[in-house]
Structures are given as C-alpha cells and as structure tokens.
Design brief:
The chain has 191 residues and is α+β, with helices and mostly antiparallel strands. Helix content is 50%, strand content 21%. It has a five-stranded antiparallel beta sheet with strand order 2-1-5-4-3, sandwiched between helices. A hairpin with a 5-residue loop joins strand 4 and strand 5. Helix 1 packs across helix 2. It starts with 6 loop residues before the first helix and ends with a helix.
Length: 191
Amino acid sequence: LTFKLEPAAQLVRNNFVKSSIVPKKRNVPSPDADAVLNETLAQACTLHDQAGCGFHAVSADGVLLAVNDRLLEWLGLQRDALVGKRRFRDLIAPDGLAEFDRQCARFAITGRVRNFDLEMVGADGRHRLMRASVTAVRDAEGRFLYGQALLIDIAARHRSERVAQRTYRALKVLSAMNAELVNADQEKDFL
C-alpha cells in the first residue's frame, strides 16, 4: 500500500487510526505487534479512502490536510492540487459562503458542528449538495490540532424531496379542481 498524502496528512490519518486501534498499554513489545499494527493501519486507510462518504481534515486556518478518494471523485479534483494548497472554503459555492462562515463560527466556539448543508463546486463547475459534520481534534492540553469532517452527498435526496413537493402541489391543485367539478355538478342539479 502506498499513501498518496502529504506528510502532514499522513500524520493526521495515522494519529486518527492509531488512536482507534492501538491498545493504551502494550506489556510485551513485539515485531509481530508492529506488523499487525501496520497491516491494520493499511486496512483502515483503505477503508477511509473507499468509504461511501467524503472525509477531509483541515488545519486551523482551513487549509486541507487530507482528503479521501470519495470526495476527490465527487468533485473531480486531484489530491495534489488540494492538500496543503487550498482551503476547504475555496470549494464552497459562492452563494453558500455566508452560511459556511456562520457554521465555522459555531465550530470555533463548540469544536463540533453536525448536519449542516453546503453546496460544493466541482472541477467542472457543477454544484453538489452535501451534508457535513465537523469535529475538532485537540491534543492532551486542549490545543486545536485539526478539524475532521464527514460529508454525505445528499443531491439525490434533495432531488427526491423537490419531486415530492411538486407532486404534492399538483395533487393539491387536482383536488381543488375535483372539488370545483363536484360543486358544479351539484349546482347543475339545482338549476
């Protein structure tokens, strides 16, 4: 397995995975344990990159430290054009920047923001609707290390909701027209 990340992103990913899988105390150091750890780390990195959702990590100033393959695929972008070079904010649609900034302000205060919608712009200029949750990762002294985010593509859900709303409005109009026809039929009987 070869990693496609910059050193800072590698550190982010390794710290995340190791904190999830490494026992807090190892009584007997063993080369086998290191091999198992490396294999588990490789498997976790593969899972991370091939997940059905987007993952990314950002520095305190919003620069992308790591981006998984799924998010790159959705946006049609390359890792080497983003990691360490661009801010996540640069990927947000212009009309969504005010809301994004509000969520960032909440994140700065609470260290966590869950389930907010944002529209991202891909390499081809097309917009993609996402639902995001972001969590701050801090060191033992409580200092901010990086933010990690999960993104879910909700474009299909959003399209379905719009279709359902149009269908509801059409049914409402048909129902009103039906009521008028029934009314007209009843009035005909009185004349």
